[in-house]
Write a structure and sequence with these properties.
With 218 residues, this protein is mostly helical. The chain has eight helices and no strands. The chain has one domain. The radius of gyration is 20 Å and the shape is globular. It starts with a helix and ends in a 6-residue tail after the last helix. The model has no long low-confidence stretch (mean pLDDT 82).
Length: 218
Protein backbone atom coordinates (compact mmCIF):
# COMPACT_ATOMS: atom_id res chain seq x y z
CA UNK A 1 0.00 0.00 0.00
CA UNK A 2 2.98 2.31 0.56
CA UNK A 3 4.56 1.71 -2.86
CA UNK A 4 2.91 4.68 -4.68
CA UNK A 5 4.22 7.00 -1.96
CA UNK A 6 7.77 5.63 -2.19
CA UNK A 7 8.11 5.74 -5.98
CA UNK A 8 9.38 9.09 -7.27
CA UNK A 9 8.52 10.16 -10.82
CA UNK A 10 10.79 12.80 -12.32
CA UNK A 11 8.26 14.13 -14.81
CA UNK A 12 5.59 16.00 -12.84
CA UNK A 13 3.23 16.00 -15.82
CA UNK A 14 2.88 12.20 -15.78
CA UNK A 15 3.03 11.80 -12.00
CA UNK A 16 -0.73 12.01 -11.40
CA UNK A 17 -1.67 9.51 -14.12
CA UNK A 18 1.09 7.14 -13.05
CA UNK A 19 0.03 7.26 -9.39
CA UNK A 20 -3.63 6.62 -10.21
CA UNK A 21 -2.87 3.69 -12.53
CA UNK A 22 -0.48 2.17 -10.00
CA UNK A 23 -3.00 2.67 -7.18
CA UNK A 24 -5.78 0.91 -9.10
CA UNK A 25 -3.52 -2.03 -9.96
CA UNK A 26 -2.28 -2.35 -6.38
CA UNK A 27 -5.83 -2.06 -5.04
CA UNK A 28 -6.88 -5.09 -7.08
CA UNK A 29 -3.83 -7.07 -5.92
CA UNK A 30 -4.42 -6.15 -2.28
CA UNK A 31 -8.07 -7.27 -2.42
CA UNK A 32 -7.00 -10.56 -4.02
CA UNK A 33 -4.38 -11.02 -1.28
CA UNK A 34 -7.02 -10.30 1.39
CA UNK A 35 -9.40 -12.87 -0.09
CA UNK A 36 -6.68 -15.50 -0.33
CA UNK A 37 -5.66 -14.71 3.24
CA UNK A 38 -9.20 -15.41 4.43
CA UNK A 39 -9.20 -18.67 2.49
CA UNK A 40 -5.85 -19.61 4.02
CA UNK A 41 -6.82 -18.83 7.63
CA UNK A 42 -10.45 -19.99 7.58
CA UNK A 43 -10.33 -22.95 5.22
CA UNK A 44 -7.10 -24.58 4.06
CA UNK A 45 -4.97 -23.96 7.21
CA UNK A 46 -7.65 -23.32 9.78
CA UNK A 47 -6.00 -25.48 12.45
CA UNK A 48 -2.84 -23.37 12.46
CA UNK A 49 -4.83 -20.28 13.49
CA UNK A 50 -6.90 -21.95 16.20
CA UNK A 51 -6.08 -20.52 19.61
CA UNK A 52 -6.15 -22.27 22.94
CA UNK A 53 -9.59 -23.25 24.18
CA UNK A 54 -10.89 -21.25 27.11
CA UNK A 55 -14.43 -22.55 27.41
CA UNK A 56 -16.15 -21.45 30.58
CA UNK A 57 -17.94 -23.98 32.71
CA UNK A 58 -21.55 -24.45 31.63
CA UNK A 59 -21.07 -22.45 28.44
CA UNK A 60 -22.86 -23.91 25.42
CA UNK A 61 -22.00 -22.92 21.84
CA UNK A 62 -24.57 -21.04 19.80
CA UNK A 63 -26.14 -22.63 16.72
CA UNK A 64 -24.29 -21.55 13.59
CA UNK A 65 -27.32 -19.86 12.03
CA UNK A 66 -28.08 -17.85 15.17
CA UNK A 67 -24.43 -16.87 15.58
CA UNK A 68 -24.17 -15.65 11.97
CA UNK A 69 -27.44 -13.73 12.17
CA UNK A 70 -26.39 -12.08 15.44
CA UNK A 71 -22.99 -11.21 13.99
CA UNK A 72 -24.57 -9.65 10.90
CA UNK A 73 -27.06 -7.63 12.94
CA UNK A 74 -24.44 -6.38 15.39
CA UNK A 75 -22.09 -5.49 12.52
CA UNK A 76 -24.75 -3.33 10.86
CA UNK A 77 -25.62 -1.58 14.14
CA UNK A 78 -21.97 -0.95 15.02
CA UNK A 79 -21.33 0.44 11.53
CA UNK A 80 -24.28 2.84 11.81
CA UNK A 81 -23.34 4.01 15.29
CA UNK A 82 -19.68 4.40 14.33
CA UNK A 83 -20.58 6.43 11.24
CA UNK A 84 -22.74 8.84 13.25
CA UNK A 85 -20.19 9.04 16.07
CA UNK A 86 -17.23 9.57 13.76
CA UNK A 87 -18.97 12.38 11.89
CA UNK A 88 -19.89 14.14 15.13
CA UNK A 89 -16.44 13.72 16.68
CA UNK A 90 -14.72 14.85 13.48
CA UNK A 91 -16.69 18.09 13.41
CA UNK A 92 -16.01 18.67 17.11
CA UNK A 93 -12.29 18.01 16.64
CA UNK A 94 -12.08 20.47 13.77
CA UNK A 95 -13.94 23.03 15.87
CA UNK A 96 -11.23 22.67 18.54
CA UNK A 97 -8.57 23.45 15.96
CA UNK A 98 -7.10 19.96 15.58
CA UNK A 99 -5.14 19.32 12.40
CA UNK A 100 -6.73 17.13 9.69
CA UNK A 101 -3.91 14.61 10.09
CA UNK A 102 -4.59 14.29 13.84
CA UNK A 103 -8.31 13.94 13.24
CA UNK A 104 -7.82 11.22 10.63
CA UNK A 105 -5.01 9.24 12.24
CA UNK A 106 -6.02 9.54 15.90
CA UNK A 107 -9.56 10.76 16.57
CA UNK A 108 -11.49 9.02 13.78
CA UNK A 109 -9.37 5.87 14.13
CA UNK A 110 -10.05 5.62 17.87
CA UNK A 111 -13.77 6.29 17.59
CA UNK A 112 -14.28 4.09 14.52
CA UNK A 113 -12.44 1.15 16.10
CA UNK A 114 -13.99 1.47 19.55
CA UNK A 115 -16.00 -1.77 19.25
CA UNK A 116 -12.96 -3.77 18.10
CA UNK A 117 -10.77 -2.29 20.82
CA UNK A 118 -13.37 -3.20 23.46
CA UNK A 119 -13.27 -6.81 22.26
CA UNK A 120 -9.46 -6.79 22.30
CA UNK A 121 -9.42 -5.38 25.85
CA UNK A 122 -11.92 -8.02 26.96
CA UNK A 123 -9.72 -10.77 25.56
CA UNK A 124 -6.63 -9.31 27.24
CA UNK A 125 -8.36 -9.19 30.63
CA UNK A 126 -9.13 -12.91 30.26
CA UNK A 127 -5.47 -13.64 29.40
CA UNK A 128 -6.49 -14.45 25.82
CA UNK A 129 -3.45 -12.83 24.24
CA UNK A 130 -3.94 -14.72 20.97
CA UNK A 131 -7.48 -13.36 20.64
CA UNK A 132 -6.56 -9.82 21.67
CA UNK A 133 -3.60 -9.53 19.29
CA UNK A 134 -5.55 -11.26 16.53
CA UNK A 135 -8.35 -8.69 16.76
CA UNK A 136 -5.94 -5.74 16.74
CA UNK A 137 -3.76 -6.95 13.87
CA UNK A 138 -6.71 -8.34 11.94
CA UNK A 139 -8.43 -4.96 12.03
CA UNK A 140 -5.31 -3.19 10.76
CA UNK A 141 -4.82 -5.76 8.00
CA UNK A 142 -8.44 -5.41 6.96
CA UNK A 143 -8.03 -1.64 6.55
CA UNK A 144 -4.82 -1.97 4.53
CA UNK A 145 -5.76 -4.97 2.38
CA UNK A 146 -9.49 -4.45 1.87
CA UNK A 147 -11.01 -1.15 2.98
CA UNK A 148 -8.42 1.18 1.43
CA UNK A 149 -8.29 -0.68 -1.92
CA UNK A 150 -12.08 -0.82 -2.12
CA UNK A 151 -12.25 2.94 -1.50
CA UNK A 152 -9.78 3.49 -4.34
CA UNK A 153 -11.91 1.47 -6.75
CA UNK A 154 -15.21 2.99 -5.58
CA UNK A 155 -13.82 6.50 -5.97
CA UNK A 156 -13.97 6.01 -9.75
CA UNK A 157 -17.70 5.24 -9.48
CA UNK A 158 -19.16 7.40 -6.71
CA UNK A 159 -16.38 9.78 -5.74
CA UNK A 160 -16.01 13.37 -6.96
CA UNK A 161 -12.38 12.68 -7.91
CA UNK A 162 -10.39 9.43 -8.18
CA UNK A 163 -8.55 8.42 -5.02
CA UNK A 164 -4.99 7.11 -5.02
CA UNK A 165 -2.67 5.48 -2.49
CA UNK A 166 -0.11 8.29 -2.36
CA UNK A 167 0.45 9.49 1.21
CA UNK A 168 2.57 12.34 2.49
CA UNK A 169 6.08 11.28 3.63
CA UNK A 170 5.36 11.62 7.35
CA UNK A 171 2.45 9.18 7.11
CA UNK A 172 4.62 6.68 5.23
CA UNK A 173 7.29 6.78 7.94
CA UNK A 174 4.72 6.37 10.73
CA UNK A 175 3.01 3.43 9.03
CA UNK A 176 6.35 1.69 8.46
CA UNK A 177 7.44 2.27 12.08
CA UNK A 178 4.09 1.04 13.41
CA UNK A 179 4.28 -2.08 11.23
CA UNK A 180 7.81 -2.93 12.36
CA UNK A 181 6.91 -2.28 16.00
CA UNK A 182 3.89 -4.59 15.82
CA UNK A 183 5.98 -7.30 14.15
CA UNK A 184 8.75 -7.13 16.76
CA UNK A 185 6.30 -7.13 19.68
CA UNK A 186 4.14 -10.04 18.52
CA UNK A 187 6.85 -12.38 17.22
CA UNK A 188 7.76 -13.56 20.74
CA UNK A 189 4.26 -14.65 21.72
CA UNK A 190 4.60 -13.15 25.22
CA UNK A 191 4.06 -9.72 26.74
CA UNK A 192 4.42 -7.68 29.92
CA UNK A 193 3.08 -4.42 31.23
CA UNK A 194 6.21 -2.45 30.30
CA UNK A 195 5.91 -3.63 26.70
CA UNK A 196 2.47 -2.07 26.70
CA UNK A 197 3.95 1.16 28.08
CA UNK A 198 6.47 1.28 25.23
CA UNK A 199 3.73 0.68 22.67
CA UNK A 200 1.67 3.50 24.15
CA UNK A 201 4.73 5.76 24.04
CA UNK A 202 5.15 5.12 20.30
CA UNK A 203 1.46 5.88 19.78
CA UNK A 204 1.62 9.06 21.89
CA UNK A 205 4.70 10.25 20.00
CA UNK A 206 2.78 9.90 16.75
CA UNK A 207 -0.27 11.63 18.26
CA UNK A 208 1.78 14.57 19.57
CA UNK A 209 3.55 14.98 16.22
CA UNK A 210 0.28 14.96 14.27
CA UNK A 211 -1.39 17.35 16.71
CA UNK A 212 1.41 19.93 16.41
CA UNK A 213 1.99 19.39 12.71
CA UNK A 214 1.38 22.52 10.55
CA UNK A 215 -1.58 21.92 8.16
CA UNK A 216 0.41 22.92 5.09
CA UNK A 217 2.82 19.95 5.37
CA UNK A 218 0.11 17.29 5.67
Amino acid sequence: MMVPSLVVVADAATRSAFTRQLSVGLAVLLIVAYGLGLLFSLKTHRAEFAGAHHDEEGETPWPLGLALATLAGVTVLVALVSEIFVESVQKAAEAFGMTPAFVGFIVVALVGGAAEMASAFSGARKNRLDLSVGIALGSAAQIALFVAPVLVLLSYVIGPTPMDLQFWPGAVVMVLIATLTAAFITVGGRSAWFVGVLLLMVYLIFAMTLYLLPPQVQ
